[in-house]
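$ fold --in a.seq
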Amino acid sequence: MAGAGLRAAARRYLPRRDHGGPRAASSSPSCPGCGPPGPGVHCPGVPRSAPAPAPAGAAEASAHLWARYQDMRRLVHDLLPPEVCSLLNPAAIYANNEISLRDVEVYGFDYDYTLAQYADTLHPEIFSAARDILIEHYKYPEGIRKYDYDPSFAIRGLHYDIQKSLLMKIDAFHYVQLGTAYRGLQPVPDEEVIDLYGGTQHIPLYQMSGFYGKGPSIKQFMDIFSLPEMALLSCVVDYFLGHGLEFDQAHLYKDVTDAIRDVHVKGLMYQWIERDMEKYILRGDETFAVLNRLVAHGKQLFLITNSPFSFVDKGMRHMVGPDWRQLFDVVIVQADKPSFFTDRRKPFRKLDEKGSLHWDRITRLEKGKIYRQGNLFDFLRLTEWRGPRVLYFGDHLYSDLADLMLRHGWRTGAIIPELEREIRIINTEQYMHSLTWQQALTGLLERMQTYQDAESRQVLAAWMKERQELRCVTKALFNAQFGSIFRTFHNPTYFSRRLVRFSDLYMASLSCLLNYRVDFTFYPRRTPLQHEAPLWMDQLCTGCMKTPFLGDMAHIR
């Protein structure tokens, strides 16, 4: 229905082509809402034989620009009928690559944030415990204790420049999104960011960060557990800067990272969750429904997690029941991903019911048994589960999915809990109108830049300012500091590019599988490349076919 409304509005405003013989020269200086076309571009509303004259004077040109602006405003209003909002389903599965579940015989899962979804109330606990470890064991100033966890500060996928103490959002082309760089809790001016990187927004990530986003000088925060880490890092830097204390950036970064690691290594997080699973574990009944349905349809299941068996066992008993291991053909704990996928040296070891290690050599992986460590190469040899008939789900794009897709040809599914909230924002009328007008205004700026008299330049400058304000408003709908995890102002984020590269499917939670048949085929939508898109929203709104005709391109050659 929304698509029909868009097409009807487009028909009302797009110039018509004549099909009944020669057409008369147009008295209009341009096609509707467009202005004089740029060189090499033909607009259907303007005859080829008679180039459209520009308005005579500067005042007339300025009035012409504002008239086109008002036309565009009305057009965008008509292009967005009420039903255009709420088109996206937060419970849907989104495909980067075509995949048929009919061909998938084996399903694999990570545990944390995949089988077990955790409540956000876990993050303040991790933050506070790591903060106290810094103070009590690393002897950091007592004043740091005044900081509490702010869930609205950071988002997943940010980069941290260790030597510059700079937390920032980087796009798919390795450019910092201006306005999203923070030192401590304070924004860093755009000019300073550009100066810090030698007069450019571009960050040479290939020199400064490894494949898994772990340095040497820039770290990417990729998992959901990193949210309290980013918050604590920013708070500690804020305290040191606010009190004029000298510090070594590398030492501070390592201490905060080690304190967060201690929360996990010492088992504090496991204890909190085990004490109150109702509070911390979400959608347990849906996890059980997913696993039970897959087994009922003859699928084989396996679990590979970095968490210890006692913790996983208690969580699975809570969600699935005491016989949960009967659903899985193979269970591997403390796997040490991502090295599990690349290091051939670590053998599998069997665990007994009490978690004690056996010393016998593993020659097969048995259903109902528990194994620790090991490596993927032995796993493939012992199970013969290879290639695209295996689909593995995880929440960490690097540790869970990257090697499986790139090196071994498994199909992969990314669990992105933030997707649900972001889709709900995208579905709002405020977001839809803001984005559509922003796109239309961008199209106007591109088409009208041929007007270069002083008054017209003032008009264009006013439009540029409005466009920037719209971008900031749209960004703040998701997160006031950093915006959406999937987009900068217009480009995909570095996180989003990795999501597309390392996952066939992505979804907010594993329970989304319940909305599809087990033989369902996912077809990704054909997203236009720039050279394939004659009717993007901004071109639709400006009434132009931007794709140059061959005859008009002679001057380019």
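$ fold --in b.seq
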Amino acid sequence: MGRGPRGAGPPRRLLPLLLLLGLARGTAGAPGADGLDVCATCHEHATCQQREGKKICICNYGFVGNGRTQCVDKNECQFGATVVCGNHTSCHNTPGGFYCICLEGYRATNNKKTFIPNDGTFCTDVDECEVSGLCRHGGRCVNTHGSFECYCMDGYLPRNGPEPFHPTTDTTSCTEINCGNPPEMRHAILVGNHSSRLGGVARYVCQEGFESPGGKITSVCTEKGTWRESTLTCTEILTKIDDVSVFNDTCVRWQINSGRINPKIAYVISVKGQRLDPMESVHEETVNLTTDSRTPEVCLALYPGTNYTVNISTAPPRRSVPAVIGFQTAEDDLLEDDGIFNISIFNETCLQLNRHSRKVGSEHMYQFTVLGQRWYLDNFCHATSFNFTTWERAPVVCLDLYPATDYTVNVTLLGSPKGHSVQITIATPPAVKQTISNISGFNETCLRWRSIKTADMEEMYLFHIWGQRWYQKEFAQEMTFNISSSSRDPEVCLDLHPGTDYNVSLRALSSELPVVISLTTQITEPPLPEVEFFTVHGGPLPRLRLRKAKEKNGPISSYQVLVLPLALQSTFSCDSEGTSSFFSNASDADGYMAAELLAKDVPDDAMEILIGDRLYYGEYYNAPLKRGNDYCIILRITSEWNKVRRHSCAVWAQVKDSSLTLLQMAGVGLGSMAVVIILTFLSFSAV
């Protein structure tokens, strides 16, 4: 068969195809067999569509039916909110559709009130604890799934309700622990100032005549708001008086044994004498003596030629077994007025001069030279001198001496042929009254106070400092030192650790009574994170090894992993609080927080985190890094205490031209292998 001329018409093999197209075109706009337009009969919730050359009515998305007489809404929520919308949701059906809402305590990751889950949106827990003050004063917020709970912070106790509590449903309030007045201790008195807050220490000293053989007596304010009493007690001191003897005719000496000797013991010496001459009256006298000597002695003003009974005992409240001695004084004619005398001390600063002569009627002049020094002060010196004239045989002179001072007193009998002198030493005790007032703290670690003393006189102050941390039970700091100052308003700054509660006892060495003040130091930046720095160029990112930091400067609350664009590294501030989660950012141009772990959840040794593992750490999603971007990954440690927050940061890695992580690479490899298997299967099926 010959070939036809060009342009004569289409090839014969195309004619059937053209015929079919013409038929299709003719039926496309034609009415139905019954003469009606099918599209005109579609239901209001249906759409007219052409299928296999015919026009048919199909119900719209969200409706089911025949498309012409019936299109009924399809209830997508009938399978349950969890199946349709995901966890923590409620499903709401609408005509031809539905929408999802997160339950109370959760929010949608698209940051909108409603969502459709086909865009990857889901409900994540809302951290209500990001709102400060939610649990009222003294409360600590703990986030839970879909809600939160309130607990009282350390140093506070719940009142008027349960714990944990919710501020909208419970009336619980957190009140600062205040133990009030410390308990009374039998035979003991409370000394100094004390704090009634948690960890406050009340100190006691035994009353005169009592002692605590086991050591110092203290009571501590506990976390229950009550004082923990000491197991030690004050027991009575029984003084035993032995070896009483007479010397120099009218002087008495004895020894004592009372275990632990207090600085001073008061004695009562009862004297009763009967003259040999029955016509003379009886001589009775009581002498008081206070001394810290273990071999006390006293010289008495006794009559010559008299039988005496001397009873020696301790003054109340101290008890003793009395000692009695009897003796006879020499006759007057056996004694000569040779200018010899002796001196006894009583009432701490008073002297009694006892001459051997009993001759009455002669006047005598004594010269006193007094020199006082304090062993703990190089520049302290108290010197005075005066003359004293008397007719008495046993005159008494009381000196005006400073407390806590060692004195040398030289007494010379003027006019005596031999110029007889007696030298004695007196150690005055510390004052029983308080010499420090108006003590206060400033600049967190410094103290100032008012000294009640003679102007321009140097004083030494003894410091005893105890430091404790509620969050670090093994921590304990104790310091003892002294300073000297002649100022009436001294100041001192102490070397204290941050984040610590301190009790400071301050005592002037010239006084027995200390003052106690409490100080709390604020936290400082936690130690820098211990990380090994990596620089990654297009390769997989290694795992972050997180090591637990030591709580040197305050309690550590959390560890955070921040992902920033590399360009922001130079301007990033570690104290920045504005870092948001991955889903709350419209873009990652400002960076985001990839992980947050509470300090209690970090093991003591170490843990590893893979950046981009698609897991949640706390409330933050660890999203994969975008390929081809440059990132800086920072590890931040946060400390928080007493409404103060401090941070320390370290750059863990710089990522340039970011690639897939090891986990992502494994996923891509598995996916590629699956594609190859499917293609191979289809090839065999086609054959």
